[in-house]
Amino acid sequence: MPITNVSDTARWVAWYRVMETERADAIFRDPFARRLAGAEGEALMHEMPGGLRMAPALIVRTAVIDELILDRVRHHGVDLIVNLGAGLDARPWRLPLPPDLRWFDVDHPGVLEYKTAELRDDRTTCRYEAVPVDLGDARQRGALLERLGHVTGTGMIITEGLLVYLPPELVAALATELHAAAPLDWWIADLASPRLLRIIERSHAGALDRAPMRFAPAESGSFFAQYGWREREFHGAMDDARRLGRRMRGTWIWYLLYRLQPAARREEFRRMSGVTLLERVP
Q: How far apart are CA 230 and CA 186, in angstroms?
């Protein structure tokens, strides 16, 4: 079984950033991805059933989140970013961020120790801090949020590739707790639909048994409304794949079916996978 725990997915996903970076027409470049993914990341991607086929979807997700981060920083005053389940994301090193922006990477100690050791000779573009936290531990989450409550500014949360692995009750607790943390006004999260999760479970043939995908709300971004978060934007993966020139192979049938469906059904298709931008409601 190629994936033995959730942290393994960080190397796997990092290899997709290697693949995109090394294209002549790359839509983003991550010069740190190859070093962080290592040979293990490449092996995981090739061993994963459908690993190559998934590349465009995860590459598009990275590009869209890059766009949203830079937009909130440049046009909405965001000067604090908290990346929960940060994995091997190297945005504090590769994005053109203001030098006074504060960036907190939050993840298991082993993941952060590995990343910071690999990048110890490279400078970040902003003020960076690695914060080891087990997000499944309510006490550790509480300590993190108490600390953030004393930080001033306009804050944003990122949960790229995280929520899908959490049980719904933990996502609900996290949404409630993040809402109570005063400086956190924005939240970028990627979401999958129940239909997509069933497709992934069938196509991966048990490869994710030790890192099961659990969270796929039927109500999509509206799930968070009851916890104080309003969806401001939704970026459907199919739309962005077409816009960015990174359609998954064989998905022409999906685009055909999409155009033939009534409006409600088209919206369901559009929300099978995508990135939501949530705004904290006072």
A: 10
pLDDT at position 84, please?
97
Residue 223 is given by DSSP the state G
Per-residue DSSP letter, 139? H
Mean pLDDT by runs of 10 across the 282 residues of the chain is 60 95 98 95 84 89 98 98 96 98 96 95 98 94 92 95 94 96 94 88 62 88 97 95 86 65 75 95 92
- By the 8 A CB rule, do 163 and 189 touch? yes
Instruction: For 62-89, write each residue's pLDDT tens digit.
Output: 999 999 999 999 999 999 999 999 999 9
In the chain, the domains with their CATH numbers are: 8-280 (3.40.50.150)
Query: pTM to 2 decimals?
Result: 0.91
pLDDT at 198: 84
Half-sphere exposure of residue 240: CA atoms within 13 angstroms, side-chain side? 24
What count of residues does the chain have?
282
Q: What is the pLDDT of residue 205?
A: 57
Annotate 3-29 with DSSP letters as a single string. Answer: --STTHHHHHHHHHHHHHHTSTT-SS-
Name the helix (H) or strand (E) containing 106.
strand 102-107
Would you state the structure tokens that stand for residue 278, as one six-digit string?
């949530």
Contact indicator for 191, 276 with CB cutoff of 8 Å: yes
Exposure class string for 15-45: b at 16+ Cβ within 10 A, else e: bbbbbbbeeeeebbebebbbbbbbeebbbbb
Question: What does the alpha-carbon distance between residue 228 and residue 148 come to, in Å, rounded to a whole number?
Answer: 18
8 Å CB contact between 9 and 41:
no
Across-strand partners of 83? Answer: 105, 158
